[in-house]
Amino acid sequence: MDFIIQALGYIFDPVNYLGENAILPRLADHLIYTGLSLFIALVVAIPLGLFIGHTGRGKNFAVAATSSFRAVPTFGLLLFIVLLNGLGLWPLVAVLVILAVPPLLAGIYSGIQAVSRSTIYSARAIGMTEFQILSKVEVPLAIPLMLGGLRNATLQVIATATIAAYVGLGGLGRFIIEGLALHNFVLALVGALLVMMLALVIDLSLAGIQKLVTPPGVATVLTRKATDKQPKILAKIAQEREG
Amino acid sequence: MIQYKEVSKRFADGTLAVNDFSLVIPAHKTIVLVGSSGCGKTTLLRMVNRMTTPTKGSIEIDGEDIAGVDPVALRRRIGYVMQNSGLLPHRTVTENIATVPTLQGMGKAEARALAMEMMDVVGLERSLSDRYPSQLSGGQQQRVGVARGLATDPNILLMDEPFGAVDPIVRSELQRELLRIQSELGKTIVFVTHDIDEAFLLGDKVVILEKTAKIAQQGTPEEILENPASEFVAEFVGANRGKRHLTIVENDNSSDRFVLVDGLGRPAGVLELSASQRAGSDVQLKQPKANSVSKARSVSNKTVQAGDA
Which of B24, B103, B206, B288 is the most exposed place for a label (fewest CB within 10 A)? Predict the structure, then answer.
């Protein structure tokens, strides 16, 4: 308990906010790495996920690719790229993008796949173009699951961005590395707590957004029928929403 | 007018769904395609709005081969109603009904007003206008589906087992509602069902299909009942099971209501004589068979009294 109280004391002491090796600049670094990586990952995953979800083509490939990419050890990959290319921002961003794309992709295409086939069929039968089916039917209905993917990816990237410190890029991981090196466990705990709090704050905000953008007609379906009739993945979302 | 010209459809997996099918569907009538599951009736329906393309033959609407028409444009001028309504779950009733007019650029207020009118046409309370499909009963959802199909005032309305998933009471309500709407609007309706009673109730003309959409018989319900073309048709309409062969049970209390029983002796309905019929009731009772055949349409439905027909 002492450790935690001391760590919290450090975090909430304004003296530690500004200046070199202080919380705010490292938090800013951490957020920049996270945001940049997620942005690039979204640029890759959105068109690919929408294409796979709408056409159903390349789904097997996507499933295989996402699960094998999930198995890539991020830290090892980072060291590998750094050894090959030297230090810099891009090796870090590259590994974080590789980490973030699979959950994003899975959220997007499984979100679209979860939309009822008969809804899509009837949209086509009354005269919607393929693009209208995608933009007016599939995406609005898939948004909750897509944001679920974004939440997953964001959590993983925030947690993993701590490795930036190992390649001299700072971020909140810096507290952890320094703390371990100096046997200053309070400092290490400060890093861990800050990462945790950041992850929680951002995840809760995304959860709020998820609730806001869930179409009203769908929200009732999700909560009412999810447990018996909808596919498992929807039931899971509904549980998360209720829980 | 819709014309099928020697149409065949073989699916990618090699199944022959439709084999050399030709049929003329006259305008402003209700044509019912009826047959067991897998007879190709739904495939035939889907060909009309190019949701399925025939592998052989052609389909013409008012003399124009639809193979040359842009599918999206074609579908927007043909109403489509399916089982389980196919409504968009994230849109309200009025938004659903006005989907196609909105796609065609109709303004929001105008689209809403149109949707309200369509709700009146299909007998939906206007107070339901802002509900979502998940907040409606099955019967209400189907009414919204019909309203959506009619919203662009299309000449042709395709109905793919639209009342298949609702309970019998609601189904018969919806059927009567459709008869009323059709008597007011006079659309060319192509209706697919596996329920022969529904086919006889709704169809101006009924087409009974065997496997691979072979026409077993086509004609008015009366023609088919009076003179089934084959053993298959007789079996399908239930003629040789005694279901359609109704006789009057004599009653002792000399009222004007007579119980009708089918060939197996099960009560099938009640025959009530009107005042004029009562005067010549001897004649009526001596010709029970002719009488019951011509009334079979309503008697078979069991919800309408035979005497009303």
Answer: B24
Contact B75 A121 (CB under 8 A): no
- Kindly list the domain boundaries of chain A, sorted by start residue: 2-215
The chain-wide mean pLDDT, for chain B, equals: 85
Q: In terms of CA atoms, which chain B residue is nearest residue A129?
A: B72
Contact between A167 and A118 under an 8 Å Cβ cutoff? The reply is no
Is the CB of B51 less than 8 angstroms away from the CB of A124? yes
ipTM beyond cut 0.90: no
A to B CB pairs, distance under 8 Å? 72
User: CA of B282, closest CA in chain A: separation in Å?
Assistant: 55
Q: CA of B203, closest CA in chain A: separation in Å?
A: 23
Q: Contact, B207 vs B33, CB < 8 A? A: yes
DSSP designation for A134: I
- According to CATH, the topology of domain A2-215 is MetI-like fold (1.10.3720)
**What class is the B2-238 domain?**
alpha beta
pLDDT at B36: 87
Residue that the structure tokens 């399908």 belong to: B236
pLDDT value of residue A48: 93
Residue B273, helix vs strand vs coil: coil
Amino acid identity, position A129: T
Orientation of helix A216-225 relative to helix A232-242, angle to 10°: 100
Query: Residue A219: closest CA among chain B residues belongs to which residue?
Result: B90
pLDDT value of position B43: 93
Distance CA A40, CA A27 (A): 20
- Residue B176, chain A, CB below 8 Å: the answer is no
CB nearest B90 (choices: A122, A125, A217): A217
